[in-house]
Amino acid sequence: MNKLLLSLCISGLLVGCVSTKSPTGRSQTLLFSDAQMQQMGAQSFAAMKKDQKISQNKSKTAYVNCIAKRITAVLPDQGQQWEVVLFESDQVNAFALPGGHIGVYTGLLNVAVNQDQLATVMGHEVAHVLAQHGNEQVSRSQLTGIGMQVADAALGASGVANKDLYMAGLGLGSQVGIILPFGRSQESEADMVGLELMAKAGFNPQESVTLWQNMAKAGGSQGPELLSTHPSHSHRIEDLQAAQMQVMPLYTQARKQSLTECKING
C-alpha cells in the first residue's frame, strides 16, 4: 500500500504527498497537511464533547490533567496547547487527536490504577499523534471509497456530515462503528515512543508491563475496548520488558527534577 501511494505521489496523481520517516525509521506516505489533520482532530473532539457525557468529578479530572501536563511537557513541540477531557463512561479507553486533544474515559481509571499506569496509556495515545499515525490511516484509505469521503471531510467540502468517517480514520472507530484500526507496526511504535515519553516525564516505565497485564485480564475473554481498537499482539509485553534498560535512565534523570505527583484526592 505504501509503495502504491508513493507511486501515485511521484506520478502527480495525489497532490500534497509527503514521503517521510516515522520516529522509529519506518517509511510513511502522508497525503494530508498538518492543518488538515488538526481540522479533523478539532472537529472530531468537538463532536465527542457534544455527544458524550463529560465527567464532573473535579478530583479525577485534575488527576488526568496532571498526568497529561507532564507528558505533553516533554514533547518536541512546546507551542502546542493540549485540551484534556475526562469522559464519564465505563469504557476502558483513551485517545489523542491531532491539534492537541486528549480524551480519557473514567472506566480506564479502574484498570490503570496509578499515575504510572495511566501515563502508559496516555503516552501511547499521544505517541500515535506524534508519529502521525492518523495521517497514515486516512492516507491509506484515500484509495478506497471510504477514503475519498474522509478526504472530502478533511478538506471541508462536506462539513460535519462525514464526521464518523474521519473520526474512524483518527482511531475513533469503536465510538462510531466504522473501524480503521491502527496496524501492528503502528501499535508497536506507539508502545515504544509512549514508553520513552512517560519515562522522560518521570513516570515509572516498569509499570507499563503491569498495565498491559491488567488490560489482558480486564473484561473477561473479550478484553477491554482499548484492546479491540488498539490490537495487542503476543509480543507486546515482551517488547516493553526488553525496552526497560533503554528507558530507565530517562526515568532516573527525570526523577531528579521537582515533579508534581499526580493522585486522586478524596
TrEMBL record:
It holds the Pfam family Peptidase_M48. Binds 1 zinc ion per subunit. Keywords: Hydrolase, Metal-binding, Metalloprotease, Protease, Zinc. Residues 60-242 form the Peptidase M48 domain. Its cofactor is Zn(2+). InterPro entries: Mito/Outer_Membr_Metalloprot (IPR051156), Peptidase_M48 (IPR001915). Belongs to the peptidase M48 family. This is M48 family metallopeptidase. It comes from Shewanella aestuarii.
